[in-house]
């Protein structure tokens, strides 16, 4: 065992206490620096891992996009091949007319798409499949205005799919534009002599090609109904539009609305609602009042915790 020398002991006894404090501070700084370096290294590892994940995700997206492009190209090739086969088959098919009698309805200028749907039904019943036969049947039913719209096709029929081309052009050129339909829906349409349910179906047919919200259609339809019908229907907000149309038909049956012709002949005569309609209105008013009363009675309980 080695014992400290007396001079070492005396040196330690007379050593300045401030030197020990400085040594401890240096050691503490060194420990803090090491912890900081470790934290920086951990953050760097996390950042590297995040960048690696982003790079992997980007590569995955690129691979998915490449596969999608390949799939789209394959589908396009299949579609092109199918069209090519149809064209070859049409060119190879004999150009003849099926001598089958079929009676088509008179052409509808205002609704060509519906007319062609009926014509297709007649062709199916008569087992007519040849394009040229369908083409000639349709041509025979066109009036002057409709024929003038497709004069270019009639003068020079397409060699391939003459009926399909004629149908497409007639529907495109005679169908009412979406802008006109919306304008007609918003401003021009009135109930007239139609039942409320018939008028609703008519408005739906005008709104079909356009983006018309159901609430807007409901408002437009209600606004065009007679005042006493509006009064009853507005008290039933829980009903669907179809249910409201059925209820409106029943109200009109109980208290008929004067037709346009009758109003024109006697504009000063205003029919008064009968007892059945008045009773119905009173019952509905009482029902709405009862609902409001029940809501007010329940409201304090709903607000309490």
UniProtKB/TrEMBL annotation:
Residue ranges, compositional bias (Basic and acidic residues): 1-16
One Pfam family matching this protein: DUF7041
DUF7041 domain: residues covered: 104-186
InterPro entries noted in UniProt: DUF7041 (IPR055469)
Annotated segments matching region Disordered: 1-79
Record's compositionally biased regions (Low complexity): 25-79
Highest taxon, organism lineage: Eukaryota
Name this polypeptide is given: DUF7041 domain-containing protein
